[in-house]
Design a protein that fits this description.
By secondary structure, the protein is of the alpha+beta class. It has 2 domains: about 160 residues, PhyR, sigma-like (SL) domain (Butyryl-CoA Dehydrogenase, subunit A, domain 3), CATH 1.20.140.160; about 120 residues, Roll (Nuclear Transport Factor 2, Chain: A), CATH 3.10.450. Helix 3 packs antiparallel against helix 6, helix 6 runs antiparallel to helix 7 and helix 10 packs across helix 12. Strands 2-1-6-5-4-3-7 form a 7-stranded mixed beta sheet.
């Protein structure tokens, strides 16, 4: 057996783990596969004669590849495709092969995936490596280009956001996101019927004094009135996590100046609270979902 064959066997031993790491970080099966393939290419070009722990070396490389991919995704300001859980993958006749088993075992709930998409790339990498795969912060630090203490802070911030979302009154973030996305699209298009279908019959819209000063109505009740109010609006609004639930934000230079806190009932918007008061805005935990 030549050196390349030996290296290929060792790589295959770790492939399932690498796929699990990559999928947790990227949330998209195809991108996870691409990341692992890139690790294999880098392994072929690297001098690993002095590497004592090949598994640790490969984990470090896949983490760096994923971090680059996450940063590229954020720079393009694209919405990732991974807010859905992939369909089960058909395995061999005698059962799933180890790669597929690892990928399915690594599948994260769609609600958590939505939360992870709000994290900065370095936060996501630090959180996944430490909290999911128990990688020490001393090893995470050079991957994210920070000190060990700073890497710990990255993971801590990410953990607070994940835990906050997990304790939201309605943790169905994927369903909330779908409603909010459809609501924003219908609002921009002036589609009254679509807006009406997304609103609870007894929906209430309330605004604080600062929001009223910006042109919002102090109170609007009932689906027809709220649908009429939002028809043709929301051109600069974006979906965001607001205190762990999906809401709507209008921002200048990435700083929110108007936040719509949303409550949901039976898959529809049941309450919308417009917040523009600077002090109250400062107390909200806001994280953009779409970049």
């Amino acid at each position: 057996m030549d050196d390349r064959d030996w290296l290929a066997e060792r790589f295959e031993e770790h492939r399932a783990h690498l796929l699990a790491v990559a999928y947790r970080m990227l949330g998209v099966p195809g991108e996870a596969d691409d990341a692992v393939q890139e690790v294999w290419l880098r392994l072929g070009r690297a001098d690993t004669s002095g590497v004592e722990n090949l598994g640790g070396w490969l984990t470090t490389v896949v983490a760096r590849v994923c971090l680059d991919m996450l940063r590229s995704r954020a720079a393009r300001r694209e919405e990732p495709l991974g807010v859905h859980v992939p369909e089960p993958i058909a395995g061999r006749e005698d059962g799933l092969d180890p790669e597929h088993e690892a990928l399915l075992a690594a599948s994260i709930g769609p609600a958590l995936l939505v939360v992870l998409e709000t994290l900065a790339p370095a936060e996501r990498v630090a959180f996944v490596l430490h909290d999911v795969f128990a990688v020490p912060f001393d090893e995470i630090a050079p991957i994210v280009g920070r000190s060990s203490a700073a890497a710990r802070q990255l993971a801590s911030r990410a953990r607070r956001r994940v835990q906050g979302a997990a304790t939201a009154p309605d943790a169905d973030l994927v369903g909330q996101r779908a409603v909010v996305d459809a609501f924003l699209a219908a609002s921009r298009e002036g589609d009254f019927a679509a807006l009406l279908a997304l609103l609870d019959p007894d929906v209430v819209l309330r605004a604080d004094r600062a929001a009223v000063a910006l042109g919002a109505s102090e109170e609007v009740r009932g689906a027809p009135a709220v649908a009429g109010y939002f028809s043709g609006r929301a051109r600069h609004a974006r979906p965001a996590l607001v205190d762990g639930a999906v809401g709507i934000v209008v921002a200048r230079d990435e700083r929110p100046f108007l936040v719509l806190r949303c409550s949901f009932a039976h898959g529809k918007l049941a309450r919308i609270e417009a917040v523009a008061d600077a002090e109250r805005l400062g107390q909200l935990d806001v994280a953009f979902i779409d970049g």
